Fold each of these.
Amino acid sequence: MENWQEIIQKSGYLNLDNALYSKVNPTELNQAKLLGLNASFIEKNLKLNPKDENWKSLLAGEIQIENSFSMAYSGHQFGHYVPQLGDGRAINVGQVGSWQLQLKGAGLTPYSRMGDGLAVLRSSIREFLMAEYMHAIGIPSSRSVGIVASFSQLAQRETLEPTSIVMRASPSWIRFGSFQYAGISLGKKKLVQQLTELSFSQGFPKQADTSGEHLFSLALENTAQTLAKWQAYGFMHGVMNTDNFSILGLTIDYGPFGMMDTFSWNHSPNTSDYNGRYRYSMQPIVGKWNLEKLSEALGVAYNKDRLEKKLEDFYPSFQKHLTQALLNRLGLDLKQEDSTQKLLESWFMAMEESSVDFNGFFVFLTFEDPLDTQKLKQLCGKDLKPIENWIQRYLRLEPNKEKMKKYNPVFVPKNYMLQKIIKQCSLGDFEVLQKWLSLCQNPFLMDPILEEYKGRSPENTDNYRLSCSS
Ligand code: AMP
Ligand code: MG
């Protein structure tokens, strides 16, 4: 039997000034059931036994771990600065090795504001699966440890819904908003320095230069790379507020995200995103804007001019990573630089003109005959001529199909599929979750189940949008 109190170490975060956190214990979820565990992560990364019968108690908040706490932060939400936010429904229980473990949905914290501190089942299932999928396709992300749910304790959202807790893990939960809270809201240089130091030790160990300017360079580079991969795989986060941006450049805080179905520059997966601030085409622009806000917060303790100057590196870095990610997906290299670059630029236009299923297109190029017009037609919502012409130009560059297989997952968790899994789980079929976790963790493997999900998304679910409670 695991003795959690011995296994889970006090987090290094608690060495910071106590203005940056509040100690708080998780609230037990009523009659919780264990829905899923990420056995491979628990074994390989946490070096613990997934078969231990006490996982459910830990995940459901039934065990009080000394030194549990929630973090204070602030952030720009949809462009407006909110001076005090914080983990309103997340409680850090401590660290195992280099992993900071957090329970999301484990009850009220001093930062819950008007919220109930709970998470509903559908939102937990989405985070549990998607974080693992992102990791599997090479997009930096927080990880999922396990998920429990209660069908007797309900939370009011659009309707009354079952509640749930996900345990998630990350080397660090420090956010851009953490620096904004320390530097802008509290105006404390010393706290900005403490967060800088801890960000290095949690995420960038062994750096000779541990200045705030250098941390900013690393955060900028990682953010540029992650955002380039979001674009290359059609991932839309939905709520790119600065409090949802990790100092390590990881994808965190999964909410109303979506994988692009039919390509559209202007698609935003979040129904609360009224002005399309976080739409697909805006993601890199917002990424840079968020970095600007981070630089302002770091500027309280470090050299403002140098921080500002580094911002100029963002677009070149983003562009470099985007080009590389697309080349990988298309099986090309930059030997014929000019024509390849032009081909990449024209790809987006052709995709939009022919209304092509974003990820289905890569699967088609990788596993089918790209000249098979009938199959191509099944992926297009409009006239297939533009994308057909583009394919002809593309084939002249002799793509490497073997390379493509490494970068083009056959499984893509579109929102309509996640909705279906949520429905099945809500009806008591929990095995389905473990099956889909395995698909998310092995998305490059063909599975018979995927036959049903081939091609374009059903019309009424295409580019399905979700609310912030997702
Ligand atoms: P999000 O957009 O989900 O990242 O949440 C923004 C802020 O609201 C964060 O500080 C969250 O911790 C907080 N929050 C979201 N949902 C809840 C909830 N149900 N109860 C308390 N706080 C919440
Ligand atoms: Mg958040």
Amino acid sequence: MAAPIVVALGGSLLRPEEAERHAWLAKLTDILAECKVPVGIVVGGGAPAREAIELAKPVIEDISALDEIGIAATRLNASIVAQVLQGAGLDVCNGIPSDVLSASRGLSTHKFVVMGGTRPGHTTDNVAIRLAVESGASRCLIATNVDFVYTSDPRSNPSAESIEKMTLDDLQAIVGPPIHGKAGGSGVIDPIGVQAAIDNQLPLAVLDGRDLSRLAKALSGLAFTGTLIEVR
Ligand code: UTP
């Protein structure tokens, strides 16, 4: 069977606060239905993760305990995506795997596997990168709510510049060392995932998943608007 592709879908893309969420989910389903290769989809926690972690923070200090709450939210979002795809008749592995090994096995017998987080200490970016390595994917696509990797955070630095092509080492210089500082909320890509990509020589891509035509192009191997991150 052809090598799979792994996509990290940022939880913010589910946009529970916006009316277009149904159209977005329907378009995602259409795009995946057209896909010629197996796809592993790793869904982030988005608003439910942020809300639940903020609710618990004043009474829970332990980062791992807060991470577990974030993981539960990622699995909730993964269930939404899995049920939508299954409901549309796509060949989705039953259940939400709780580790990358089971998810990778699922990808050898089903066209799609949908999962969320696994264990404390990182985010779903790292899970997606690990799943890509485990399943022999050629690249891991990070679909998020920014259009490119920037030289610094464009929210706090208006003169930050977008980057179309870079290396994993360049990316590590931007995201910093592989440390999980706090539960919930990270930069453009989890630095622990970037280290895993470096260790396993896995190319990445970052694109704006709000515009699903970009994801469709990337999944088809066509040029897309976003940042390509090569091994060197
Ligand atoms: P996300 O993957 O959504 O991370 O997991 P994030 O960086 O906070 O969100 P985005 O990418 O900016 O949208 C939510 C939280 O769940 C915990 C972490 O606390 C993470 O911040 N988590 C998630 C884990 O501890 N382990 C996992 O495998 C996944």
